Amino acid sequence: MMIKLKIELDAGNAQQMEAASVFFSRLAALKDQRTINFEPQEAPVKEKTETPAEEPETPEVRKPGEPSPGKSRRTKAEIQEDEEREQKEQEEQEEQEEEQEEQDSSVNIDDLRAIVSKKANTHRTDIKKKLTELGANNISGLEKKHFPDFYEFLEALK
Question: What is the pTM of this model?
Answer without folding.
Answer: 0.36
